[in-house]
TrEMBL record:
It holds the Pfam family CBS. It comes from the Bacteria. This is CBS domain containing protein. Keywords: CBS domain, Repeat. The keyword Plastid does not apply. It comes from Allomeiothermus silvanus (strain ATCC 700542 / DSM 9946 / NBRC 106475 / NCIMB 13440 / VI-R2). The keyword Lipid metabolism does not apply. Residues 7-63, 81-138 form the CBS domain. InterPro entries: CBS_dom, CBS_dom_sf, CBS_domain-containing.
């Protein structure tokens, strides 16, 4: 899966001289949490709803309404946006986007192609992809196994699943040279798939569905 498969294309953006109040209104209207900041065709920053709200005067301020309106009218996105921007290319694997968001502790990334902004990818998009990969909407039975971390172990376990159909497989390294493998199976014979795996010598840890 590539970033382009899960990103929001042609994202709404603002310019650096957009007033903060206008940017906040735009976020509210579209139910977004972040906006790329474009200077012409160039991506120069990104601003989030938190950035914008943090820039607003405190409710405890002693400024008059006139003074507040004057200050807010002058406050622009340029003064609160984050820069430089962490971006990702549209044709990079989705897991690269997840890793970047984790490393930089950000909730979204502008997506570029040939130096041009073409989309935005967020944590929500990654979670949607995660649930799709694990086949959560496919129903069936979810089985967790512990298998040896050696070549052929996954194929051996999968061989005990038919006549049921494997719709998703996920593995993660575990202690003691083992792997945890999660299978989601559907179709014929799902009620007996755990028994078939045990009969094949597999260590079945959990069965749900």
């Amino acid at each position: 899966m590539l970033v382009r498969d899960w990103m929001t294309p042609n994202p709404v953006s603002v310019s650096p001289d957009t007033p903060v109040l206008d940017a906040l209104k735009l976020l509210k209207e579209h139910s977004f949490r972040r906006l790329p900041v474009m200077d012409g065709q160039n991506l120069v920053g990104i601003v989030t709803d938190k950035d914008l709200k943090d820039a607003m005067p405190s409710k405890a301020t002693t400024l008059s309404v006139w003074e507040l309106n004057y200050l807010l009218a002058k406050l622009t996105v340029h003064e609160v946006m984050a820069k430089p921007v962490i971006t990702i290319e549209a044709d990079q694997p989705l897991e690269d986007a997840a890793l970047l968001m984790q490393e930089y502790k950000v909730g979204g990334l502008p997506v570029t192609e040939g130096g041009q902004l073409v989309g935005i990818i967020t944590v929500t998009d990654v979670l949607k992809a995660f649930t799709e990969v694990l086949g959560l909407r496919s129903g069936g039975v979810r089985i967790t196994l512990e298998i040896p971390d050696v070549p052929g172990a996954l194929a051996k376990a999968a061989g005990a699943v038919p006549p049921s159909n494997i719709v998703s497989v996920a593995t993660v390294a575990h202690a003691g040279g083992k792997q945890r493998m999660v299978l989601r199976v559907t179709g014929e014979g799902t009620a007996g798939v755990a028994d078939r795996l045990r009969a094949a010598g597999e260590n079945v840890l959990d069965v749900r569905g």
